[in-house]
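Sample pair:
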Amino acid sequence: IIQDAFDKKVNEIWTLKRANPNFMLGIEKIPEYNGEDTLMSITIKMTAFVRGAVEAFRQYLPSKSATTPYPPGDKLTKDTAVTETEIQLYTKRGYPRLIGMLLWGVRHGFDECKFGMSILGSVASKPGPLAWKNAMYMLSWMDANQKRGIRFNKDGNHHPVTFADASDKALLSNGQRQAGFAIMWTDGPLITSSHRLKHVGLCISHNEYMAITAAAKKLVWLLQLLEEIEVQITTPIQVYGDNVQANRLCENFVSPGNQYIAHQYHFNKEKVEEGMMILLWVDTNLNILDLYTKPTSKATCDNLMPNLLGFGEGIKTLCEKILSMDPTCKPRP
């Protein structure tokens, strides 16, 4: 009745057409049921949207399909030199439009592409031949995987689990590294980020420590939101990182060895002391955040992507495997 009244009022001004809520703005939500009433999973796909993007740039697609979300070992950064002629050429060819399409796909169905999207977006104002080549490579990847999507499972983890990581490969122009985090819920990527750190790290543990801060801030927001809608979450939240020293620093006091770290990053210590989160060690080979901080090989992608996208063994099983590998690297609760 409420919907009918709303439709009637709105149609006095505009033309309103009811549509299937499981398909909006190129995003398709596919529920899977066990029997008639028990929802087991929801898969989010971008199949139709990807097909449209592919048709718009088909003449530029590489002859061979991509085998990874982003070219392995690629060297493109904001430091990559391009000429003004190249910038004009690839801008006119449609690089801004292409980046917009890729970004929409990455946000809603291709989380494994977030590192590449961060790099491609950073050169949006000065595209060159390498940026164009890599963007078309990513579009080729989406084309090859358009029917897959991201899956959230009913029997997955019902308490958020977080992974964080940072690279030690710096931009030559400012020394900043790439970092990222993923908050996983019901086996899928609920909140994720791949971004350049805002400050220069003096060592890998410093970079990893700053990456954990970004994850901690987003966890505060998420827990406050869940509290407002009366969803009870048990704390501390497990936060996995593959740098032992960075993890331990989250529970240690400031010392002469780490006193150079900017005060705002010690937010980590406060949240550990409050019991909001606990830092746990994860072997690099099981850290799904490798996909967010560097251009990884096909073998690494094949190993990590299933657990990132909800098609693997499940986050609960992954965490059990992680914790069984080397308990000596876990900080005190």
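The two ends are 53 Å apart (CA to CA).
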